[in-house]
Amino acid sequence: MPPSNLETWRRVADDEALLRRAADCDPTDVASVARLRKHASPDEAAVALELIKARRKAAAKFPDHATRLIADATGVEQATSFVAARHKAERFRDAGLTRVTDLCCGVGGDALGLVAAGLDVTAVDLDPVRAWMAGQNAGCATRVADAEGLIAEAPHHASRENREGGSQSPGALHLDPARRTDAGRVFRLADYQPSPTTIRRLLEHFGDTGVKLSPAINLDELEDTFSVGDAEVEFISEAGRLVQAVLWTGRLARPDTPRSATLLVDNQTHRLTGPPGETEFAPAGRYLFTVDPAVERAGLMAELGLPAVHPRLGLLTSDDLNAASSPWLTGFELLAELPWHAHDPRKVRGWLADHDGGIIEVKTRGKAVDPDHAQKLLRGPGNTPYTVFVLRFDQRLAALITRRLENTC
Fold this sequence. Notes:
This protein is of the alpha/beta class and 409 residues long. It has helices spanning 6-13, 16-24, 30-36, 42-57, 73-78, 82-94, 109-116, 128-138, 147-152, 159-163, 196-206, 219-226, 293-298, 346-354, 371-378, and strands spanning 99-103, 120-125, 141-144, 172-175, 180-181, 184-185, 209-213, 232-238, 241-248, 259-265, 268-273, 287-291, 315-318, 329-339, 357-364, 384-393, 396-404. The strands form 3 sheets. Strands 3-2-1-4-7-9-8-10-11 form a 9-stranded mixed β-sheet. Strands 13-12-14-17-16-15 form a 6-stranded mixed β-sheet. The chain has a two-stranded antiparallel ribbon with strand order 5-6.
């Protein structure tokens, strides 16, 4: 949680001179911090240092907003990036929705995207500091409230009225449940706050909702908890890094699309939809392809039209390089397949040494090996980089030695 109280944050955010001094301060140096405290109280100095730290962390997520963002470092870590927020906001706008409540808004990452899309946004958080931060960052209305208060403040409206946009509709909802406690990150849906019971009531109350979920969400648990037969679960990756899943309901869910994968990269949006299904299987061919994690989590690998080398390894294969003209795939040329002996991988090391092996990247699944340790074992004095997939094929371990294809789409 952000340190200190709201009034301290307000004073510090308005004190440009203090923030400049904080930017020049080394927070790990006692003397440097002592000099800063000559110009501020201990609480103000702590908030100033926290704000500068947060802005530096925000440079990647909010490149156009970082220097003026008002946030704490933890809030930045938990926030949706502007790229992902803008993508989600477009779905609200394209569904014809105009008013959105951003509940559990944090420092306002999603609110920034919603406002940028031209929507009327109210950012709501139980923490008054975070609610204020969201309002300052997104330029939207704010409220301090919890989910129960939000539901209780107005009568329940039938979902039909919501769909028709009646004047009594509560509008749409974006919800980012807390997935951290004092003990650390939580992974079970049952441990989210608000609780699943309260989230279910919010879904019924608002109708048109987007619920931010962990990308590691257990889909069976999600289905059992919310009966999401008419909803859509979207997995979003940014430049190949899986960042979140979103449960879309009401008008925000696309018809006949229970799962979707979205890749946001180089100012482009790639989307894959279809029914979850099993891929066909084939022995490893000339080329291997890793798959964007959003596709794999959505269960949509079969939509890419290539066979997999094994049911659980997430690796596709083909003898035709042109088959990989897809933004979802990263390609590798298979050069050799050798047995892997964990305590003595001499055959693999010998092959690499004979082929000018230098820096070695090791990829694995299911903890078949420790990739960091394997990379140190295999690294050689040569100049040629290789990627080695160490994978468990049922009862045997194999090393697939490959060369990364730089120009794969």
